[in-house]
Amino acid sequence: MIKKALMPSQPVIEIRDLHKSYGQLEVLKGVSINAQKGDVISLIGSSGSGKSTLLRCCNLLEDSQQGEILFKGEPVRWKGQGLNRQPADRAQVTRIRTNLSMVFQSFNLWAHLSVLQNVMEAPVHVLRQPVAEVEQRARALLDKVGIGDKADVYPAQMSGGQQQRAAIARALCMQPEALLFDEPTSALDPELEQEVIRVIKALAAEGRTMLIVTHDMRLAADVSNHVVFLHDGRIEEQGPPASLFKSPQSPRLRQFLSHSL
Ligand code: ADP
Ligand code: MG
Questions:
Q1: Is the pLDDT of residue 2 over 80?
Q2: Ligand 1 closest atom vs CA 50
Q3: Cα 68 to ligand 2 centroid, rounded to whole Å
Q4: Dihedral of CA 239/241/242/245: which sign?
Q5: 3 state SS for 46-75
């Protein structure tokens, strides 16, 4: 179990009544989420329910039409309205994106860069941090995720589980306030899934703030202190994993779980 801080603090990320459409298709219909430091929140729901969209809206990879996004109490500043609404301040976008580092289902490593170069790329070229300092941190992170010996190989030479661990090291090398995982294990064979799950569990045990979209109910139950069930662009039910999985209230969640457990 994750121990919650006794003092209420500023949420790392707060989403208030977020609405997001792709053209005519309204995908998020008023979603609110609050992640305090150390929270591990799992987002579950059927394919197409808006989980990836919500995660991408959090770090401003997607625009949204209505509602607020706050990073450590700082509201995203917008210009325009409705389908024309966009963040108004590029520096703020970079700051938020750096601090909410994303791990994708398909790893998204650069094929032409070595593992070490992949991990160092953004801190050196986006954050302009000194190369020697970043390299030291990158090597320590590769050790931490168990692929310290793979620093000089290219992604194609590694298994999916190793590539995903490299992607996690890359996200950590940005020294983010929180990590956003979008189905981090669903592209992996079951035996490789476990090596990534071990890393995610270790990060949860360290008290890292994480939002995890996952189809793996056991992972959600093991690592999260809060689970959110999205259905058709709305939060249908949410709560601590023990109660949500043992006694779901919503028939839709019951039906979803009967196919997922
Ligand atoms: P989930 O991750 O829960 O499977 P998504 O957030 O990927 O759901 O998608 C939610 C809905 O939005 C789906 O109907 C999907 O087809 C649609 N969608 C996702 N991305 C786009 C896009 N870039 N353009 C248009 N529609 C999209
Ligand atoms: Mg998705």
A1: no
A2: 6
A3: 22
A4: positive
A5: CCCCCHHHHHHHHCCCCCCCEEEEEECCEE
| Residue 53 near ligand 1, beta carbon < 6 Å | yes
Separation between Cα atoms, residue 123 and residue 129, nearest integer Å? 6
21 lines ligand 1 (CB under 6 A): no
The position carrying tokens 């999985």 is 245
Q: For position 9, what pLDDT does the model report?
A: 74
- Please tell me the predicted confidence (pLDDT) of residue 260: 83
Average pLDDT rounded to a whole number, residues 81-104: 95
| pLDDT for position 126 | 93
Residue 21 CA to ligand 2 center (angstroms) comes to 15
**ipTM for the assembly:** 0.98
238/217 Cα distance (integer angstroms) = 14
Q: How far is the CA of 61 from the centre of ligand 1 (A)?
A: 13
Cα distances from 13 to residues 39, 65, 76, 177, in angstroms, run: 10, 18, 11, 9
Pick from 164, 182, 177: which is nearest to 44 by CA?
Answer: 182
Lowest mean pLDDT among 4-8, 21-25, 135-139, 195-199: 4-8
Yes or no: say if 142 and 119 are a contact pair by the CB < 8 Å rule.
Answer: yes
Which pairs count as long-range contacts for 248-252, CB under 8 Å and 24+ apart, including other chains? none
Q: What's the pLDDT at 3?
A: 53
Give distance in angstroms: CA of 137 to centre of ligand 2: 31
Q: Strand (E) positions, 53-208?
A: 66-71, 74-75, 78-79, 86-87, 100-103, 178-182
DSSP assigned state of 189: -
Q: What confidence score (pLDDT) does residue 10 get?
A: 86
Report if pTM > 0.90. yes
Q: What is the pLDDT of residue 4?
A: 52
> In whole angstroms, what is the distance from residue 245 CA to residue 254 CA?
9
